[in-house]
Amino acid sequence: MAIRVYNTLKNSKEVFVPVEPGKVKMYVCGPTTYNYIHLGNARPLVAFDVIRRYFAYRGYAVTYVQNFTDVDDKIINRAKEEKLSPQDLAEKYIKAYFEDAARLGIQKADVHPRVTEHMDDIIGMVQGIIDHGLAYEVDGDVYFEVRRFASYGKLSGRSLDELQAGARIAVGEQKRDPLDFALWKAAKPGEPAWDSPWGKGRPGWHIECSAMSAKYLGKTFDIHGGGADLIFPHHENEIAQSEGANCCESAHYWLHNGFITTNCEKMSKSLCNFCLLREILDEFPGPVVRFYLMSTHYRSPLDFDGEKLLAAEKSLSRIHNTYRTVTAKIANLPKDSGSDDGRKAALIKICEEGKAKVIDAMNDDFNTSLALAAVFDVCKEVNTMVNDRAFRGDAATVEGLQAVLAFFAEMDLIFDVIVPKEEETGDNGDALANGLLAMVMTLRSNAREHKDWATADFIRDELKKLNIVIEDTPQGPRWKKEKVRG
User: Fold this and answer.
1) Residues 5 and 26 sit within 8 Å (Cβ to Cβ)
2) What is the DSSP-derived secondary structure letter of residue 116?
3) Is the pTM higher than 0.90?
4) CB within 8 Å of 388: residues ≥ 6 apart
């Protein structure tokens, strides 16, 4: 069961073969910490968190590195606006990042390196590039000489002639060619600066990731990830720097997620068309936002609007309702022995077939959309069986239902939204509360069977006051916890 990934470097899907058997080393570009992250920033967080989780699910030992850019022109300018030091501003937004990421269910990286903590590594790499004849220094600035790197453009597919047409030398730059880019910037008055062989200054944006990925993952590692907007120039320049310094391939596989758009225009802070993630999380639970971001293949564009989040909330509730229904059935079915009429085997078969479909989808470049569709298929078949009014069951049936819960728990290792979280269920996972609700639902079903509509409606209305909504479906009644929005 090989995993195939779409490698931007080769513009095709390839069978994943790790540098070291049984291990996966991943580097994913993190945020520049000058503002709260927006929904577009959240997409790579979720996409690569799922990819990381899937590799772990498949038995790989994963080393996951995600950086923070904590010194940058944007940080310096924003710090002036907020009347903070650049260091304090970066610290403020790094803290906010971890708060927002936790609400999305993002696992912390094994290492979260910061640029300001790796100046020696960055300076050493710049010097190595100079030593290999690929960079030059002018009055404290150091530039990478693009035309001396023969394979420049191999990631983005752009030729030097194409790039030359739009290249310009900005005021104050002293580079030899408009295509050359900064590895080190000479200090400016009032800006953070570090000592280097070329005088005080700070690194260019691209060199930081080359230096930190090599430090923690080695000169050659497995996967480098990020948004599609980073393909050029950031990742193109990373390849030139890393290979120019280390004389070997850097990452074997380059993976890029698609944009989130608003009205089909890329979401970005510069266009002022972005939605802060924390504002969205104040309206929708983290698992709903995470589910929404997983509902489309990570490489496909995703156009944002509130209606799609509402639809995601309803879709996720279908999965959670199945989980709750199965949990309630287990609580109410007899545990003593009885004759197995095939329900146990049928339930286990449903789960095994669903699991196989999920794995097939995830093996095909982490197709979460198709994988989640397989989970929905399991829910539909299980609901049809357990909500049948003739459904009774015995100890063997309970074992089958427990296999369904085990399937949910296993899928949660990959997606982290399949099993309802405590804050969504409102019952802190308490078995007594589940059992009591199941009993109330049974009483209502009995009232309906005896055409006692007044009692059935009374139970429904009283539960609604507790924000528990009952849906009467052809397969039987279901309940869900309704979120109250201000």
Assistant:
1) no
2) G
3) no
4) 475, 476
